[in-house]
């Protein structure tokens, strides 16, 4: 659950200072000592304890007493810092309803210069171990969930910037911490559609995969669940796991993407497409 904009607007400057201090010191500590928070913010012990108790009540901070009294930022607090920054920059002005949720993200409607979406990356709660194994960009050693989520968001935003508009992806609008703001794609997932011309749609998707490959990028997690259909055209979403075409396993990775799509179209629409031919067309 993302913290409400009303709560963010009513945060006291001391509470924001504590959240910022926790974010900074969690690069060093799993649990930030109370004394470190006091020194970093310049607040008295009583003020720190009062403000932290409020932040804990709102689901922004967590407490641990072993082996010392320490505090950690959780996603509620990280959401708050990101939303406050995006609002201050004018990237978004209001947060709407939740429109999607996966194992590693949650997506909300929002208002910027027009309708947009904001994607909160959530690498950690249920998937941190697999993320470390499957994503080569994760750093070695202790990698807090918040840092992993920020890296995931930065990576997805970089892909969108590199691909748009040559590849049909959402327009990247902004990025802060573990969030990515992008244009709203008004359409359902491919798996929820009944296509009138499935062969044409499959060809379009493969053409975009080919263009992305030519730009040096492989999606690496492509399936019917991360293709949206807007006004009869495919829009490919969810890019945090992308790899470069210079990757030593690039051909096998793009082949897996293509097999996923071909398998779906064969299963649902009985479309027969030679996988080898499709792969050669994509990487040529």
What is the CATH third-level topology name of the largest domain?
Answer: Phosphorylase Kinase, domain 1
Which strand order spans the largest sheet, edge to edge or round the barrel? Answer: 4-5-6-8-7
Overall 3D shape: elongated
Secondary-structure element order, as H and E? Answer: HHEHHEEHEEEHHEEHEEEEHH
Number of helices: 10
What does this structure look like?
With 284 residues, the chain is an alpha+beta fold. It has three domains: 5-76, Arc Repressor Mutant, subunit A; 90-183, Phosphorylase Kinase, domain 1, CATH 3.30.200.20; 190-283, Orthogonal Bundle (Transferase(Phosphotransferase), domain 1). It is built from ten helices and twelve strands. The chain has helices spanning 5-9, 13-25, 34-41, 45-57, 75-89, 128-134, 145-163, 198-214, 250-269, 275-283, and strands at residues 32-33, 61-64, 70-73, 94-101, 105-111, 115-121, 172-176, 179-183, 217-218, 227-230, 233-236, 243-244. It has a five-stranded antiparallel sheet, with helices on both faces. It has a three-stranded antiparallel sheet with strand order 1-3-2. It has a two-stranded antiparallel ribbon with strand order 9-12. Helix 8 (198-214) runs antiparallel to helix 9 (250-269), helix 8 (198-214) packs across helix 10 (275-283) and helix 9 crosses helix 10. The protein is elongated. 38% of the residues are buried.
